[in-house]
UniProtKB/TrEMBL annotation:
Keyword Lipid metabolism: no
Organism in which the protein naturally occurs: Patiria miniata
Similarity-based family: Belongs to the UDP-glycosyltransferase family.
Transmembrane segments: 514-533
Signal peptide (UniProt feature, chain positions): 1-22
Protein name: Glucuronosyltransferase
InterPro entries xrefs: UDP-glycosyltransferase, UDP_glucos_trans
CDD domains: GT1_Gtf-like
Metal-binding recorded as keyword: no
Superkingdom of this protein's organism: Eukaryota
């Protein structure tokens, strides 16, 4: 950071003394009005998008968030003064919505949503229950979209806002519908991962199951024959399920609200000017992208936290011996964890030679907390990670914390709970700076061994430091990079980045027509060849027999 600041100062000095020609002070490029909608999501996705919005504001643009009346907590945050807000009427109350989050969290902590089978079951159940039971986690996005598109007052307010661009979470199919209804362009922001099948379907991204692993299968880019077979089959299944899901849910909304009749929802989604995905090749396996798909590491990277480390936490860090401190957090879901499991974690942590700073927002009076462990309701994670006494991070494998641990070059022990966390951990383990544990199959001993291994074996620390150096080598921090790209396509549109594959239909895209044409042409020429040969043969035979019979006649005459 110092280097960057020093450089900026030097440039500023050169600019202002007229030694080099550049834009001094105010950026003279046009400023835009952005509308941001995360589908009514109320957690990590929204927080990521807030960071990107701040990046846009730093560049002089203005940002308005579209919020659901069932979740308006963002209006009361300390940074709310930076943004504008438009609130639409949701058919859910705040309490109903919190009950849904709670149901999701319980599903996570009981392992119901953790496995691939569990997640697929929940998705299918959500699709089947669809309109009957509105209050299921996986129908939340659909309901919110329906409420938003149907709220004439909110839609009027949005139109009045005259926005230049909609920035939307790619998790919901609502943004393409909203953009179409408002007749403005849109950018999609993917908060989780590069999903090979989804991006192939929507964005024509090259997909190759031989080395690009599908999500949720625990595979790396180095697969055996059996794994490649599974990967290929799953990529077909995912493609089918994803299309079905979009068709089932958002296509119905598209019809209901009279948006772009005759255009498939998938095609609408593919019209995004740009697709920013919150990931980076420090974690993701190398794979091809398209020019309009940009990878940007997690948006919290490189941004400093406002709040200082509380006095007691600082004392706890400073007071540790050479073994140092382990940072432990499983996020907010841990409140819904079974007591026996929380006890196991507490006992495992108590065995460690390190001190442990445990972020736990619940009541710990029943847990066997070790005398090396300090439980806190809140901590400034990044400031703690930056402290030299912190030796490793023990967390669920959420993309944010994982990227932050990488940024600070810390080895990692992951206990993935749901969604992309399993895949993140597969990648982190593959890069050699992490160990992954299964919450439902671990004991205090495995916890103890994993933490002591990542702190004692030098390879974990070395790989973490190297990965950190790669991540820090970028010229821009993720939010500034995302903001740059969003402003870029707002200025120029995304046409120059859009690959032609998106305008091809299924047959053309897969070259089926070409194969059919080539096969037909091949058959025809072979058939023609045979026909010509036969014809030639027959002619030859005819002339021969004529010749022969002619000779015989001559013979007869001669007799
Ligand atoms: C791929 O995995 C196999 C064993 O599963 C291993 O022998 C091989 O070295 C790996 N290749 C690479 C490039 O890592
Ligand atoms: C935590 O739980 C214990 C017993 O279950 C109770 O006595 C205590 O008051 C609780 N503490 C808080 C802060 O709720
Ligand atoms: C902390 O607990 C360990 C056993 O869990 C014990 O050996 C040690 O003496 C305790 N230390 C203090 C300062 O109480």
């Amino acid at each position: 950071m110092m280097d960057r600041h020093g450089c900026a100062l030097l440039l500023l000095g050169l600019c202002c003394t007229g030694l080099i020609v550049c834009q001094c002070g105010e950026d003279s490029r046009p400023k835009f009005k952005f509308l941001v909608y995360t589908g009514g999501e109320d957690g990590s996705h929204h927080m990521q998008t807030i960071n990107v919005a701040k990046g846009l504001i730093r560049q002089g643009h203005s940002v308005t968030f579209l919020l659901s009346s069932s979740c308006t907590k963002w209006l009361h945050e300390g940074d709310a003064y930076l943004f504008n807000f438009i609130v639409y009427r949701s058919s859910l109350t705040t309490e109903e919505r919190e009950a849904i989050s709670e149901e999701f969290s319980v599903g996570v902590m009981t392992g119901e949503l953790g496995s691939l089978a569990g997640f697929m079951k929940a998705t299918l159940r959500g699709m089947i229950d669809g309109n009957r039971r509105r209050n299921r986690p996986l129908n939340l996005l659909l309901n919110e979209c329906d409420d938003l598109l149907g709220d004439a007052e909110a839609m009027h307010a949005i139109r009045e806002g005259q926005f230049d661009m909609l920035i939307g979470d790619d998790m919901t199919g609502c943004n393409p519908l909203l953009a179409n209804k408002l007749d403005i362009p849109f950018v999609l922001y993917g908060c989780t991962a590069v999903k090979p099948t989804k991006l192939q379907l929507l964005y024509g991204l090259p997909n190759h199951p031989a080395y690009i692993p599908e999500r949720q299968l625990g595979l790396t880019d180095n697969m055996t024959l059996l794994q490649r077979s599974t990967n290929t089959l799953m990529s077909l299944l995912y493609g089918g399920l994803y299309s079905l899901h979009m068709w089932w849910g958002f296509s119905a909304l598209q019809d209901k609200h009279g948006i772009a009749p005759n255009t498939p929802t998938l095609e609408l989604m593919g019209r995004a000017e740009l697709w920013i995905i919150s990931n980076d090749f420090v974690l993701e396996f190398p794979r091809p992208l398209q020019p309009n798909v940009i990878l940007v590491a997690h948006s919290s990277i490189g941004i400093s936290e406002d709040r200082e480390v509380p006095e007691d936490q600082l004392e706890f860090l400073e007071g540790s011996d050479d073994a140092g401190v382990i940072l432990f957090s499983l996020g907010t879901h841990v409140i819904n964890m079974e007591v026996a499991r929380a006890e196991m974690l507490a006992r495992g942590l108590a065995m460690l030679p390190h001190r442990v700073l445990w972020h736990f927002p619940g009541n710990t009076s029943q847990l066997p907390i070790g005398n090396n462990t300090k439980v806190v309701e809140w901590m400034p994670m990044k400031k703690i990670m930056a402290h030299s006494k912190v030796k490793a991070v023990l967390c669920h494998g959420g993309s944010g914390l994982l990227h932050e641990a990488i940024w600070f070059g810390l080895p990692f022990v992951g206990i993935p709970l749901f969604g992309d966390q399993f895949d993140n951990m597969v990648r982190a383990v593959h890069k050699g700076f992490a160990i992954s544990l299964d919450l439902f199959d671990m004991t205090e001993d495995t916890l103890y061994h994993a933490v002591t291994r990542v702190t004692r074996e030098p390879s974990f620390r070395e790989n973490a430091r190297k990965t950190s150096a790669i991540l820090r080598d970028d010229f821009l921090i993720p939010t500034d990079k995302a903001a740059y790209w969003i402003a870029h396509v707002t200025r120029f549109g995304g046409k120059h980045l859009r690959p032609k594959v998106l305008d091809l239909n299924f047959v053309q895209r897969n070259l089926l027509d070409v194969y059919a044409f080539l096969l037909t042409a091949g058959f025809l020429s072979v058939w023609l060849g045979i026909w010509a040969c036969r014809k030639a043969g027959r002619l030859l035979a005819l002339s021969c027999s004529k010749l022969v019979s002619g000779t015989r006649n001559d013979d007869r005459k001669n007799k």
